[in-house]
Specification:
By secondary structure, the chain is α+β, with helices and mostly antiparallel strands. The chain has a domain at 1-28. Helix content is 19%, strand content 39%. The protein is built from one helix and three strands; from the N terminus they run βββα. It has one helix spanning 45-56; strands at 5-14, 21-29, 37-41. The protein has a three-stranded antiparallel beta sheet with strand order 1-2-3, with helices on one face. A hairpin with a 6-residue loop joins strand 1 and strand 2. The longest helix has 12 residues, at 45-56. The radius of gyration is 13 Å and the shape is globular.
Length: 62
């Protein structure tokens, strides 16, 4: 099974924790059962992708 994270948008919104305006990437995860998009902080995107690799045991393709 393939696992794909699609970046489908970009924007700014207020972070509910810090109440500061933050840039985000809108992501669609192919493992989701529905077409649900979620926001990942732009400055945290690489850490998020590394976390997905660890959780799903995806191996890097050559």
């Amino acid at each position: 099974m393939s696992h794909v994270l699609n970046v489908v948008g970009y924007g700014e919104d207020v972070d509910p924790i810090t109440l500061c305006k933050t840039r985000y990437l809108k992501i669609r995860d192919s493992l989701g059962q529905k077409k649900i998009h979620y926001k990942v902080p732009a400055n945290n995107f690489i850490s998020h992708v590394i976390g997905v690799y660890k959780v799903t045991s995806i191996k890097k393709s050559d």
